[in-house]
């Protein structure tokens, strides 16, 4: 097994462990699902302008649904775990590196979501409760890692648009990928590739995501009373 394959399996193991913890606690599971739904709503709130933009709407929707969504990615994760050796063998090295980043992003997100669910009193999430949960969980370095990984996946997809040979190779892999049980991953990569190509340059989009996510993170972890974190420049002013 290559180092990339081992890292992917390790991250998927983390995801599986987090799901097992929630499966044993129905209350925790409900709160984590509420966290995911609220974060999906928050992302749509933060990027309402990009979601309404003819140029950036599709990319914003891709981030919202495929990287930040509350969806159950169990089927895709199960595919990864079963056929990581085939993934490493079939896909180009650049693609495998992106899958590794995607798997790590997934693992970090699941860990943080579980802890957020554990910090909440119930599944009725208000902006104040969300902010307090983040401060209870802490881990600002992991939140920054989560942002960096999300941007890394986006920048990789943007780079791929300048490589027609890679896109052609990806198309040729549809049959073998499906035969190897990699259909969900193939669909994710093709959708991401086509989305970023249609954007005709992702610098503004990714810079916007970076600045807004880091501004919100700074507000979440600022040394300010929750009751005082109001207004457009503070964390509560950025939450739906």
Task: Describe it.
This protein has one domain. It is globular and about 55 Å long. The protein is 76% helix and 0% strand.
How do the helices and strands line up, and which of them pair or pack?
Layout: H1 3-23, H2 26-46, H3 48-51, H4 57-67, H5 74-82, H6 84-90, H7 93-119, H8 127-137, H9 140-160, H10 164-172, H11 174-179, H12 183-199, H13 203-220
Helix pairs in contact: 1-6, 1-7, 2-7, 4-12, 7-8, 7-9, 9-12, 9-13
Give the helix tally: 13
Q: Ranges with pLDDT <50 over ≥5 residues? A: none
Secondary structural class: mainly alpha
How much beta, percentage-wise? under 5%
- Major β-sheet, in short? none
N→C terminal distance: 45 Å
Tell me, rounded to a whole number, the average pLDDT: 85
Helix content percent band: over 70%
* Structural shape: globular
How many β-strand runs? 0
User: Number of domains in the coordinates?
Assistant: 1
The radius of gyration computed from the alpha-carbon positions, rounded to a whole number of angstroms, is 18 Å
Give the topology string: H per helix, E per strand: HHHHHHHHHHHHH
């Amino acid at each position: 097994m290559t180092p990339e394959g081992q890292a992917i399996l390790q991250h998927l193991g983390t995801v599986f462990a987090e799901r097992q913890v929630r499966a044993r606690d129905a209350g925790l599971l409900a709160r984590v699902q509420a966290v995911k739904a609220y974060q999906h709503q928050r992302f749509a709130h933060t990027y309402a302008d990009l979601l309404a933009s003819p140029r950036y709407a599709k990319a914003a929707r891709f981030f919202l649904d495929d990287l930040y969504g509350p969806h159950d990615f169990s089927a895709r994760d199960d595919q990864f775990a079963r056929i990581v050796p085939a993934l490493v063998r079939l896909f180009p090295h650049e693609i495998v590196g992106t899958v590794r980043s995607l798997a790590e992003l997934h693992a970090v997100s699941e860990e943080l979501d579980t802890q957020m669910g554990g910090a909440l009193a119930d599944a009725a999430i208000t902006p104040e409760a969300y902010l307090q949960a983040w401060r209870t969980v802490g881990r600002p370095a992991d939140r920054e890692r989560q942002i960096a990984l999300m941007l890394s996946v986006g920048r990789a997809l943007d780079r791929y648009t300048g490589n027609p040979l890679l896109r052609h190779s990806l198309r040729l892999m549809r049959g073998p990928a499906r035969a190897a049980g990699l259909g969900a991953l193939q669909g994710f990569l093709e959708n991401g590739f086509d989305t970023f190509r249609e954007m005709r340059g992702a610098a503004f989009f990714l810079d916007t995501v970076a600045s807004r996510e880091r501004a919100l993170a700074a507000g979440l972890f600022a040394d300010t009373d929750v009751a005082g974190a109001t207004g457009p420049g503070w964390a509560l002013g950025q939450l739906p």
